[in-house]
Amino acid sequence: MSDECLNVLQKKLIALYENDGDVFDENDFNKIVLDEKYLKRFLLRQNGDLEKAFEFVKETLIWRKEEKLSQMTDASLPRELYEIAGVCIHGTDFDGNAVLYLRCRYATYPKEAKTAITRSNYYLLHKAFEKGLYGGDKGWVMVLDFTGIKFTSFDPQMTYTVLKTLNRMPSGLSKLLLYNFPWYGKPFLQMLMSLVPKDWTHCGKIVNKDQILQIIPSENLPVFFENPSERHKNEIPSGAKYFDDMDKEEIELYGLKSEHRAIFKKYLTSFENI
């Protein structure tokens, strides 16, 4: 893939934005289109195919604007989600790739919260990607942690949602690790992996504790790998508010309707003793 191809891609996207300033959000235009390092990952995802990459970036940025993802910051997520750490970014693997953990024991949510949870997960996936990108031009790893999942409560809906969002991601996923995947989940495995983009299916692997220690240094694993009942002390972003302190505009940016506020509060409270 040549620098010339990247340059042409950038010029085409700039021309599109200059012709119609409403097509993309200004935040995404500055962060993605004008950053050659970031934009290159979109081109790599399409194996250097200029036309496919142009459509991929255009469609992704239009979608991000429609979903208000381009307006989100770390403080857009309720503080409780960082404290629960059901989805968290922590440390690196042996290759220096950023690692995102999704704890499936926290994966059940009410239908009224689907947009909000999907939006927050996509935001965190992108944050993991960016940590890898700007942390030495590395990639990122996703660990789906199935520890503590019972047969009666096995609910793959969040896992489905997260894997589907990979279709919108730039190049960079290094490994997709299914940790402590339960035997009764095997019938869902083929369906889960079918949601992973074909160019990333080779990244998927079921691993146990010994195997994950060959990929991620023990000192870089969150505390819940040693003690599943211990809560990971997640980094709380500056400005992150507790849910009760978020106003109507902040709630809607997060992806919730005001009339569903009580339902989501109950959802957050349900994790206090998990």
Task: Summarize, please.
The protein has 274 residues and is an alpha/beta fold.
Give a structural overview.
The protein has a 5-stranded mixed β-sheet. A hairpin with a 5-residue loop joins strand 1 (87-92) and strand 2. The protein folds into 2 domains: 3-71; 76-240, 3-Layer(aba) Sandwich (Phosphatidylinositol Transfer Protein Sec14p), CATH 3.40.525. Helix 1 (3-19) crosses helix 3 and helix 1 (3-19) packs across helix 4 (50-66). It is an alpha/beta fold. The model has no long low-confidence stretch (mean pLDDT 91). Helices cover 43% and strands 11% of the residues. Pfam families: CRAL_TRIO. It comes from Dinothrombium tinctorium. InterPro entries: CRAL-TRIO_dom, CRAL-TRIO_dom_sf, CRAL/TRIO_N_dom_sf, PI_Transfer_CRAL-TRIO. One of its GO terms (molecular function) is phosphatidylinositol transfer activity.
